[in-house]
Amino acid sequence: MARFERPLVMGHKGMLGSQLYLILRKLYPATIGLDIEEIDITDQKQVEDVLSHFRPDVIINCAAYTRVDDCESNRELAFRVNGEGPRYLAQVAARLNARLVHMSTDYIFDGRKRSPYLEEDQPRPISVYGESKLRGDEAVRETLNDYLLVRTSWLFGVKGPNFVYAILSQAREGKTLKVVNDQVGSPTYAVDLARTIVKLLELNCQGIINFCNYGYCSWFDFARAILRLKGMSQVEVQPITSQQLNCPARRPRFSVLSLSRIKSVLGAYPRPWEAALAELLSIAN
Ligand SMILES: NC(=O)c1ccc[n+]([C@@H]2O[C@H](COP(=O)([O-])OP(=O)(O)OC[C@H]3O[C@@H](n4cnc5c(N)ncnc54)[C@H](OP(=O)(O)O)[C@@H]3O)[C@@H](O)[C@H]2O)c1
Fold this sequence. Notes:
By secondary structure, the protein is α/β, with parallel strands linked by helices. The chain has a domain at 7-159 and 186-213 and 255-271: NAD(P)-binding Rossmann-like Domain (Rossmann fold), CATH 3.40.50. It is built from 11 helices and 12 strands. It has helices at 15-27, 44-54, 68-73, 75-96, 128-143, 163-172, 190-202, 219-229, 242-245, 260-266, 273-283; strands at residues 7-10, 32-34, 58-61, 99-105, 148-152, 155-156, 177-180, 184-185, 188-189, 207-210, 217-218, 237-240. Helix 2 runs parallel beside helix 4 (75-96). The longest helix has 22 residues, at 75-96. The radius of gyration is 18 Å and the shape is globular. The mean pLDDT is 97. The chain binds NADP nicotinamide-adenine-dinucleotide phosphate. NADP nicotinamide-adenine-dinucleotide phosphate is lined by residues 11, 13-17, 35-36, 39-42, 62-66, 81, 85, 103, 105, 133, 152-155.
């Protein structure tokens, strides 16, 4: 098992980062958590100074500009946070001899494939968010020989805002829900992803690896499952197209990630997304 003592979670107040920080703190009491209030990853000098002060032996970057639609009108900021920030982190990781885990996304793909995306498939982003995230992936790969790039999709978790809470709150307001039915992907529970990242670190896994919960659905199916599991099946959900929703950013129509590599590394598939969703809904209001 690979040894490390001082992991640092960048973005430890976000949906994934908060979960990861919680899990790591129990296993590795010296775990450090930083977020935008303590450090801005777009400021190269600050990244160097703060990380040199803490001297982590593992850096896990969960910080990102994740508001996909806002990225369209804030291209420069998206590229600074999602593209340049990871480069600065990778440079400091190289200097400190620390391992770097960086988070990637299914939105680097155009969604035209008809079978699950493999780690080595050619990225072709169709949004500013996807382009900026791809720039970050490339920066990490150019800077470091050893890195772990974990590619995930459709995150949901205890910490909001996320799709699960959005559906529940709209349903409680008595609204008729309209949810897109022509984008298909794999929902991923932040708890399952965070636990897996820790395992992959302990196994010293390197390169690119996909992780999402098993199975796939459309956002419409996902919304219906949320309501069913919460005993609110009577709430009406209307399927609509992406064109009808007319969001600023385009999203891939099909962005299911292949789980072959994670299965071979861990010896089993992740649990199905419905089981993970049921667990979240049993603890969330
Ligand atoms: N959410 C998804 O569905 C999804 C899907 C696939 C991949 N991913 C990737 O998974 C990772 C984690 O996503 P998430 O949903 O957990 O993200 P999140 O909840 O948005 O958390 C990101 C954190 O980073 C912080 N941050 C933003 N700009 C920063 C900066 N310049 N310097 C330092 N910190 C900064 C954010 O602060 P503010 O909240 O104040 O901005 C937030 O606390 C990201 O790399 C994301 O691209 C997410």
